[in-house]
Design a protein that fits this description.
Butyryl-CoA Dehydrogenase, subunit A, domain 2; Butyryl-CoA Dehydrogenase, subunit A, domain 3; Butyryl-Coa Dehydrogenase, subunit A, domain 1; 3 domains
Length: 386
Amino acid sequence: MDYFLTDTQAEIQNLARQIAREKVKPVRAELDEKEEFPWEIMKVLAQADLFGLYIPEEYGGFGGGAFENCLAVEELSRVCIGVSVSFAASGLGAYPILLFGSEGQKKKYLPQIASGQRLAAFGLTEAGAGSDAGGTRTTAVLDGNEYVINGTKQWITNGGEAEIYTVIAMTNPAKGSRGASAFIVEKGTPGFSFGKKEKKMGIRSSATRELVFENCRIPKENLLSKEGMGFLVAMKTLDKSRPGIGSQAVGLAQGAIDECVEYARERRQFDQPIISFQAIQHMLADMCTQTEAARALVYAVAKFIDSDPKDVSKASAMAKLFASDVAMKVTVDAVQVMGGYGYMREYPVEKMMRDAKILQIYEGTNQIQRNVIGTAIIKEAAGKKK
């Protein structure tokens, strides 16, 4: 479908597509096998000025929004979401600064992130605080002009590779989620270290590590917004970033379709290509229809977010939920279309199916997305009665 992109948006899309095909595709299997962080590709993306797509021009960015970022993420994901999440997770770490940072914090950190000079990451999840973000146990205690942070964050994308971290910690545990605050912590700060690189089913080239804080002292001015705002910082950040997960899902699904359509045209059974069989055509028809529907929703939500409405939680959750469920189904079907070959590492759909599962889990499981959507529906219904 034609989504009537502007010339600039089409240029962003084409640039990301070119990098994906020329730089990512030749090495994606090797990166996956070796579980190697794609630093060389990150440098290429930095040279192409793609890291600053959503960052305002006054902070060294392109001045676009969620939609422009989604276009780039989709094209990278069409080839490898292990690479695309390494790129996109820097935005997840940057959004708290962009949304809640002081002018001084924005001027200090956003240009570095926009240029790709330094990657960012977001530290929210803990062993006992995954879906229950309010169960955070990491603490930050004010001591003079410094906060002292203690605790551990788990499963942090770009952990150990990024140099700028936005971290949620409890400044007043007695208040529960209202006692959480957000902080900026730089790699190399004494008392801040990393756990081992996790061994994952999919997105193996991305880095996932623990963040470990042991009496880690940071300047008081590294507090984002004010004390007690941490939970709001986290939720507003995820509202902004979840369409990016949707764009990963759309790109991954489209990539799987590309691979299995090409295969179905060449694979012959009963003296004809298998794409001529109605059973295969029906599977492909469903895969393409579902993917296009997911793309339309993700694009619409990204544009809605860029219009700066008051509340985007429901729409953002819908984009993440629907698109990631589609990606999982489409990649499973792609393996089925390709049969035994699809199950072999020689073909990329095996990797795509492994990669797809994480999309239903990170940045809020799809069960949590349904909770978010359901809660919003209840509030809307109550509002109409008044």
